[in-house]
Design a protein that fits this description.
By secondary structure, this protein is an alpha/beta fold. The protein has two domains: 184 residues, Isopropylmalate Dehydrogenase (3-Layer(aba) Sandwich); 133 residues, Isopropylmalate Dehydrogenase (3-Layer(aba) Sandwich), CATH 3.40.718. It contains eleven helices and twelve strands. Strands 2-1-3-12-11-4-5-10-8-9 form a ten-stranded mixed beta sheet, with helices on both faces. Strand 11 and strand 12 form a beta hairpin. Helix 1 runs parallel beside helix 11 and helix 10 packs across helix 11.
């Protein structure tokens, strides 16, 4: 079955890892018509918004996009392209699986956690102002509807994927109104899922327990800021941002992305690990119903890394294209 998917090839190293990802997905046998879209630094330099309306409209029309890293220009007033996509497309759920990967060195063996980060509220609402010349204010927004939909998404995911526990992460002991609402809403939603165990933990305690007792966690659901921090902590536990996939889901669209930066100093050097974007691509394939292809790619990546074909960040010497070639060879058999 043929699929359509938008692709933003990004800035810096983006085009190189996009090429590797597209080649590997093609080698898996999945037929995708890629629709290239503009966003990022080149749009700003052309006097356009960092994510033009035509790009947003096309993603909304097609419903699926794969996004390589993009650069946020410094000192030019441009907002983050990632935040723009999430807000304009209402991609309310950022989902980050963190799992020990064979061949990727990490002391956290048996790690298998899925993080659900609310993507549109909290301090990322970006409501900031100077109260006085010496006092800055930032507004934290937590709503019951926004909280309910991220919590319900986490429970639905747990039920659909055989997960046993959903844990709410908060700081309601200090922020009794905002985080208190997040926690109370979670507890209310949990009543609709009696087959799933639910409990809560304060965010600082979670960070300590995640690196000492990580096997007790299954699915985590968090407000935006805590989710941002904890998902990067979990990425480090699985081997680094170079191997960490990410997905952003809304009611009508989904955008799959590598969560690392555009690394402009490595542009054109053919040395960066494409695994983060590639594994984000396997999340996209699952979203499209191509589960077997996703599993085949993950198995081929594991074999490749376990055989010592690794990029520099994992202690190897393979180039981006060489890593992709090795994975493609395994897939084509």
């Amino acid at each position: 079955m043929a699929h359509k998917a938008c692709i933003i090839r990004g800035d810096g190293i983006g085009p190189e890892i996009s090429d590797a990802t597209e080649r590997i997905i093609a080698a898996s046998g999945v037929d995708i018509e890629w629709i290239p879209l503009d966003a990022g630094l080149k749009c700003v330099e052309a006097g356009e918004p960092i994510v033009p309306d035509r790009t947003l409209d096309k993603i909304a029309e097609v419903g699926v996009a794969l996004k390589a890293p993009m650069t946020t220009p410094i000192g030019k007033g441009s907002v983050s392209p990632n935040v723009t996509l999430r807000k304009r497309l209402d991609l309310f759920a950022c989902v980050r699986p963190a799992k020990s990967f064979p061949g990727v060195p990490t002391p956290f063996e048996g790690l298998d956690v899925v993080i659900f980060r609310e993507n549109t509220e909290d301090l990322y609402a970006q409501i900031e102002y100077m109260e006085t010349p010496a006092v800055a204010m930032s507004t934290k927004i937590i709503s019951e509807p926004g909280t309910e939909r991220i919590c319900r998404s986490a429970f639905e995911y747990a039920r659909a994927n055989g997960r046993k526990i959903v844990t709410c992460v908060h700081k309601a002991n200090i922020m009794k109104v905002s985080d208190g609402l997040f926690l109370r809403t979670f507890q209310r939603v949990a009543q609709d899922y009696p087959d799933i165990e639910s409990w809560d933990v304060i965010v600082d305690a979670l960070c300590m327990q995640l690196v000492t007792k990580w096997r007790q966690f299954d699915v985590l659901v968090l407000p935006n800021l805590y989710g941002d921090i904890v998902s990067d902590l979990a990425a480090g536990m699985m081997g680094g941002l170079g191997v960490a996939p990410g997905a952003n889901y809304g009611t009508h669209a989904a955008v799959f992305e590598a969560v690392h930066g555009s690394a402009p100093k490595y542009t054109g050097q053919n040395k960066v690990n494409p695994m983060a974007l590639l594994l984000s691509g396997t999340l996209m394939l699952r979203h499209l119903g191509e589960r077997k292809a996703a599993e085949d790619i993950e198995a081929a990546v594991s074999q490749t890394v376990s055989a010592g074909i690794k990029t520099y960040d994992l202690g190897g010497t393979a180039k981006t294209s060489e890593f992709a070639d090795a994975v493609c060879s395994l897939l084509k058999g």
